[in-house]
């Protein structure tokens, strides 16, 4: 029983992290129909920046967010304006795979060149600390990562729902032509939307760096599960991605008890196949996603 | 325009010079098997491709060994000369390299390449020509089950035997003090699993109950659930068949669940200099097997470390040591038998001698079973007072084994 409860706790924490890491990915697709293979490479880049910040200054890695979030936002806007927007609209989705794949390779190569292939981990005084809740241990670092996920997803939700920029972005997601007709500068909005997605990668990468060992090629292990999450959740739907992330994270954690690690990982791909066969628009998004 | 023409002529002249000298040098080396010239040793190594890092390490070890031998009177009074080809980490290439070395270049002896995947095809070629084949890397079981009667692995132990000294030490305890339960988690990789399951077999024979037995794929990023299973079992011993990042992530995940084993052993990772940086001061008491350490006081090791460090500026690591060991093993056979030529009779004598005898090397005394498995075990290291030290076997120990691991 205690193992079951502990696994539920771990699964929820893991699901929260997955939700944060997947949020940006679904946003790019929603805004621009771009498949952003480099999203996980940016996660690892931000994780490296957090590690580097901590080794150089000795300060807590969370403080690196003050620099990385604006930096990634600007990088996202520039990447959209200078690279993605030059792809032909007719083949955008397919060509964006190639383009962002190459960006991922460039980031991986740069990380290897600058920081070497040595595997790094941020040494935190509280890395092994945990709180006890009804017999289950909740690791402090995982709780911080979960908190970061909750706060960022909440903020993202508020931005999209309550601000004028958010309305414009949602209008661009739903119907770009109509949005242009009512005077929205969809190009600029798409750039900001892309920047917003990359800003979540800065937060996600820092959350990831708190509790894992990082190396330049690590992003290949992440992109598969994250893609599966956003398809299951419905491409373009942030709440859908969050729900799918939570369910799959919890499912993975619980399936490990009877099946072991190797088979538990397949839940992502089984869910992906099932979604594509039964409900290609995704379980939680679909038409609803159009209205956010 | 005229300048270009000159350049072209120059390049042509240079190219033909190179071709000529190339032919000449290969002509002279093939006549080197008559007994008086240098002893040529043919080697193919992965100097580019997947295994280029360890491949270069092995190359440094071989070259240091050859220089050392030549500075100290040579082998049978003759100089040794290495002929090293690059197989690009490619299994087809490595076979044709050894064909060429034996057939065209007429080398007197061959040394093995790096890693199981290349050792197997290379050993097959050597076997076809009746050559002795001593190799510095290739510890997986499949190397020893192909029926090679000419192969010898120049390292202390195959993966399954890495923990033998630790198992012996546990067996020597009074029954009441032995651990009762053990948890195993291993990466799905022949080497990593071999180390953990080697210890598992020994502990199960002693009656230590296996309470967790997990295998995880190399791309595993989250170790929370594996750690939850181990923590829930409250096993006395935790054994990790690990490489690097998996061990670090697993240890942190176990600490987060407040699991305190009496004994914790992980392969590979703890001997990595990054390890204490990542884990911090909670490394105390963690055990790990190691095939080589510059501090080991086997005869000839101090000399090797000093010579190698002077030549390369850094102390040798395991790959370099295993290459040097390969040289020592072949040299011992050559000196004992008194021949070094490609003649099958001479090669067979070398093989027969190694089958029967023990050789003192920088990784300890080595002897082999009929399939070429070394019959030793790895040294066991442990973090004692914040530094990794040899604790087993007792005659090589730098510090006492901590049996009750402090809390991490």
From TrEMBL, chain A:
It is found in: Cell membrane. Coiled coil: none annotated. Keywords: Amino-acid transport, Cell membrane, Membrane, Transmembrane, Transmembrane helix, Transport. Pfam families: BPD_transp_2. The keyword ATP-binding does not apply. It is a multi-pass membrane protein. This is Branched-chain amino acid ABC transporter permease. Belongs to the binding-protein-dependent transport system permease family. LivHM subfamily. Its main location: membrane. The chain crosses the membrane at residues 6-27, 34-53, 65-84, 96-116, 136-160, 189-210, 222-250, 257-278. InterPro entries: ABC_transp_permease, BCAA_transport_permease. It comes from the Bacteria.
TrEMBL record, chain B:
InterPro entries: BCAA_transport, Leu-bd, Leu_Ile_Val-bd, Peripla_BP_I. It comes from the Bacteria. Keywords: Amino-acid transport, Signal, Transport. Pfam families: Peripla_BP_6. PROSITE patterns: PROKAR_LIPOPROTEIN. Residues 38-382 form the Leucine-binding protein domain. Belongs to the leucine-binding protein family. This is Amino acid ABC transporter substrate-binding protein. It comes from Nocardioides astragali.
């Amino acid at each position: 029983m205690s193992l079951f409860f502990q696994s539920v706790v771990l699964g929820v924490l893991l699901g929260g992290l997955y939700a944060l890491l997947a949020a940006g990915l679904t946003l790019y697709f929603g805004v621009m129909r771009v498949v952003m293979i480099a999203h996980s490479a940016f996660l690892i880049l931000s994780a490296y920046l957090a590690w580097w910040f901590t080794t150089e200054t000795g300060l807590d890695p969370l403080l690196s967010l003050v620099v990385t979030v604006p930096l990634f936002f600007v990088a996202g806007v520039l990447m959209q304006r200078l690279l993605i927007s030059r792809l032909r609209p007719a083949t955008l989705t397919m060509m964006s795979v190639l383009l962002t794949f190459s960006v991922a390779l460039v980031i991986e190569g740069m990380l290897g060149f600058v920081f070497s292939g040595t595997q790094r981990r941020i040494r935190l005084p509280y890395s092994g600390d945990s709180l006890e809740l009804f017999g289950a241990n909740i690791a402090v670092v995982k709780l911080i990562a979960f908190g970061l996920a909750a706060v960022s997803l909440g903020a993202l939700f508020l931005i999209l729902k309550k601000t004028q920029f958010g309305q414009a972005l949602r209008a661009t997601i739903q119907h770009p032509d109509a949005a242009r007709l009512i005077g929205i500068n969809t190009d600029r909005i798409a750039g900001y939307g892309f920047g917003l997605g990359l800003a979540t990668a800065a937060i996600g990468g820092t959350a990831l760096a708190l509790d894992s060992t990082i190396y330049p090629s690590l992003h290949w292990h992440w992109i598969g599960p994250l893609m599966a999450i956003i398809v299951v959740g419905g491409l373009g739907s942030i709440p859908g991605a969050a729900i799918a992330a939570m369910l799959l994270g919890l499912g993975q954690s619980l399936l490990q008890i009877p099946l072991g690690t190797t088979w538990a990982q397949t839940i992502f791909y089984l869910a992906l196949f099932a979604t594509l066969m039964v409900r290609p628009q995704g379980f939680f998004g679909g038409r609803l996603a159009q209205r956010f | 325009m005229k300048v270009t023409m000159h350049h072209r002529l120059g390049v042509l002249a240079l190219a033909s010079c190179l071709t000529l000298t190339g032919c000449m040098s290969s002509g002279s080396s093939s006549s080197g098997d008559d007994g008086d010239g240098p002893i040529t040793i043919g080697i193919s190594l992965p100097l580019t491709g997947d295994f280029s890092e360890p491949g270069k390490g092995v190359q440094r070890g071989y070259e240091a060994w050859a220089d050392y031998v030549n500075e100290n009177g040579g082998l049978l009074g003759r100089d040794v000369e290495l002929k090293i080809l690059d197989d690009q980490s490619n299994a087809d290439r490595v076979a044709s390299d050894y064909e060429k070395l034996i057939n065209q270049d007429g080398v007197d002896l061959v040394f093995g390449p790096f890693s199981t995947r290349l050792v197997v095809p290379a050993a097959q070629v050597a076997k076809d020509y009746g050559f002795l084949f001593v190799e510095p890397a290739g510890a997986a079981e499949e190397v020893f089950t192909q029926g090679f009667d000419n192969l010898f692995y120049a390292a202390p132990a195959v993966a399954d035997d890495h923990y033998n000294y630790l198992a012996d030490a546990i067996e020597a305890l009074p029954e009441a003090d032995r651990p009762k339960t053990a948890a195993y988690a291993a990466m799905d990789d022949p080497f990593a699993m071999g180390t953990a399951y080697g210890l598992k077999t020994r502990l199960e024979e002693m009656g230590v109950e296996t309470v967790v037995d997990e295998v995880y794929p190399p791309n595993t990023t989250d170790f929370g659930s594996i750690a939850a299973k181990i923590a829930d079992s409250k096993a006395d011993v935790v054994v990790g068949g690990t490489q690097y990042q998996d061990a670090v992530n697993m240890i942190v995940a176990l600490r987060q669940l407040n699991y305190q084993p009496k004994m914790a052993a992980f392969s590979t990772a703890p001997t990595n200099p990054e390890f204490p940086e990542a884990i911090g001061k909670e490394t105390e008491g963690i055990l790990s097997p190691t095939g080589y350490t510059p501090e080991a006081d086997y005869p000839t090791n101090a000399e090797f470390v000093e010579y190698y460090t002077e030549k390369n500026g850094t102390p040798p690591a395991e790959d370099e040591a295993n290459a040097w060991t390969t040289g020592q093993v072949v040299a011992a056979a050559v000196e004992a038998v008194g021949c070094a030529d490609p003649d099958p009779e001479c090669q067979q004598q070398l093989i027969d001698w190694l089958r029967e005898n023990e050789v003192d090397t920088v990784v300890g005394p080595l002897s082999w079973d009929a399939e070429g498995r070394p019959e030793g075990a790895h040294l066991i290291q442990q973090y004692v007072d914040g530094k990794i030290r040899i604790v087993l076997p007792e005659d090589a120990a730098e510090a006492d084994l901590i049996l009750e691991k402090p809390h991490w």
